[in-house]
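Section 3.1 - Work completed
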Amino acid sequence: MRPSHVCEALHHLVRIRQPVFLWGPPGVGKSRLVADVARRQGRKLHDLRAVLLDPVDLRGLPRISDDGITSWCVPEFLPHPQDTEEGILFLDELNAAPPLVQAACYQLILDRRVGQYRLPDGWAVVAAGNRESDRAVTYRMPSALANRMVHLDVECHIDDWLGPCQRHPRGHPGLFALPAAPAA
């Protein structure tokens, strides 16, 4: 899909909190599309690089009460359970994460919870990653995880990157211009 079409689809899917996975080559702008949708909808964005997690990181650290009962402290990188603002939890490079980390994301994506932690109601989950054909670091995504999301393939399309859906963060239109041909 062209980035402008992905942007439009993301607007709708995020509003209904349908988990989404964006596929595309490195550098095509998957992360930027998610950030743009969050900004346009006035949502917070928690950009989490799944490839940097260990399987137990999503659960948090244990705390033992005076009664000897263990509870789990919510990791700071997840939205706070009492957060009333709407947001997007962006699991970038999810399929570059080892299979055990991907498995730890199953419950978060499907049930919107991990252990005692519950994702706040106004939050949507969006993930992204490269395809095996991109020769990037990837692990095959288990079907149990893949089946939990809508999948969108992001294509590189120059007209969309020069158009209104995406702007360079510093607003320099010259960054997109081709260099002038050398004088003869």
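Second construct:
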Amino acid sequence: KKEEVSELKHRLGEQIKLDNMVGRCPRMQDLIAKLPAIAASKSSVLFTGESGTGKELIAYALHAHSPRNHAPFVVVNCSSLSGGILESEIFGHVKGAFTHAYFDKPGRFERANGGTVFLDEIGEMSIATQVKLLGVLERGRFERVGSNDTVTVDVRVVAATNRNLEEAVQGGQFREDLYYRLRV
């Protein structure tokens, strides 16, 4: 089993080589050229662009070429989950935290420990969830929904959106401190 997983990871890594990536516009070519340096850093990353421009593919390439490539790459689509459900998915929850919480459930950050979390469409995230995310970026810690126990993780956050987050910050729909933490 381990050998099979290792072989599959190797094959996938071969497909994600930077010279296999295509982009005709100068901005995309510039991004592809900078990707090795970005991948080597520990900083959070924020990609912006229209839907269908390959933000998730770029995020995976960033992970695949980073020192974290041995650990999980976990995707969260923030636009497909409502506020409370998104918070539970990202941070997990404990048994009894809410109706139908029949068991403890680790969140995506715990599952990605040592690796990368890709938060797609982060511009759709509620302010309350943004506050908890900021705690992860600043301290690497959070509490599961319904718990007072602190969970510590080591994850790199890569986020993407098709929204103009500067306008969202000015309009009060996105936290300014989180915006600046993400766009390192």
